[in-house]
């Protein structure tokens, strides 16, 4: 009896399909629940067994890296594009708004941007390249006299942490609240002309978010 030569190819195809299903399911789950979502819930969303998930992604870090590599690349590209602007301050403002917008688009990525994944080499390389481009932008914006002299690169991380908290707490009004926070921070960072602020969220929308957050944290 001749061996089934198509079987190894079919197995490889099935494995790749499972991998893509897991990544897409994890992207949806992380967007909705953040990085605290369990591997079991991701396996259920992907329609695979937990053993299959761990065969494809032995660690949570490997799964997170696969899910958010594209988003981290967009972050890197945004930093490089901002560095090409003739006005360093315009580039600075553009990048801050873009990276905070990326956080708003995905709750999981909001957390990824404020965490370190040393073993995820591609993720960390993109992060380091973005940080280097942004650091250069800071120096140029200060030289223009548009950015406060005491602004430090680490202040961006503080802003991202604050923005992640706002996005998690404000629920229905998350986008508006995030834009308001970013507008306030850009105004605080600027020298000279004040930046126009986005509209504040409606009080009722913020209140609904506060109530939901309190219920979600109850034991």
From TrEMBL:
Coiled-coil region: none
Q: Where is the HTH tetR-type domain?
A: 16-75
Task: Check the record and name the InterPro entries matching this protein.
Answer: Homeodomain-like_sf (IPR009057), HTH-type_TetR-like_transc_reg (IPR050109), HTH_TetR (IPR001647), Tet_transcr_reg_TetR-rel_C_sf (IPR036271), TetR_SbtR-like_C (IPR049445)
Q: What name does UniProt use for this protein?
A: TetR family transcriptional regulator
Gene3D superfamilies xref list: Tetracycline Repressor, domain 2 (1.10.357.10)
Q: What is the lineage of its organism?
A: Bacteria, Bacillati, Actinomycetota, Actinomycetes, Glycomycetales
Molecular function (GO) terms listed?
DNA-binding transcription factor activity; transcription cis-regulatory region binding
Which of UniProt's keywords are assigned here? DNA-binding, Transcription, Transcription regulation
One Pfam family hit: TetR_C_43
Its transmembrane ranges are none
According to the UniProt record, which residues make up the DNA-binding region? 38-57
């Amino acid at each position: 009896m001749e061996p089934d030569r198509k079987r190894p190819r079919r197995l490889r195809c099935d494995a790749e399909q499972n991998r893509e299903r897991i990544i897409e399911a994890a992207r949806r789950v992380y967007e909705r629940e953040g990085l605290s979502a369990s591997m079991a819930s991701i396996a259920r969303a992907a329609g695979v067994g937990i053993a299959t998930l761990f065969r494809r992604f032995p660690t949570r870090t490997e799964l997170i890296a696969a899910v958010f590599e594209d988003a981290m690349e967009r972050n890197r590209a945004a930093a490089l594009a901002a560095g090409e602007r003739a006005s360093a301050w315009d580039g600075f403002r553009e990048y801050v708004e873009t990276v905070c917008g990326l956080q708003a688009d995905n709750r999981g990525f909001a957390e990824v941007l404020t965490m370190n994944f040393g073993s995820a080499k591609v993720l960390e390389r993109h992060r380091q390249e973005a940080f280097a481009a942004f650091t250069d932008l800071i120096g140029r914006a200060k030289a223009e006299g548009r950015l406060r002299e005491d602004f430090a690169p680490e202040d961006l991380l503080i802003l991202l942490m604050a923005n992640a908290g706002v996005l998690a707490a404000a629920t229905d009004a998350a986008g508006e609240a995030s834009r308001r926070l970013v507008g306030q921070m850009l105004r605080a960072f600027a020298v000279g002309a004040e930046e126009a602020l986005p509209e504040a969220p409606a009080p009722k929308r913020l209140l609904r978010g506060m109530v939901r957050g309190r219920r979600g944290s109850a034991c």
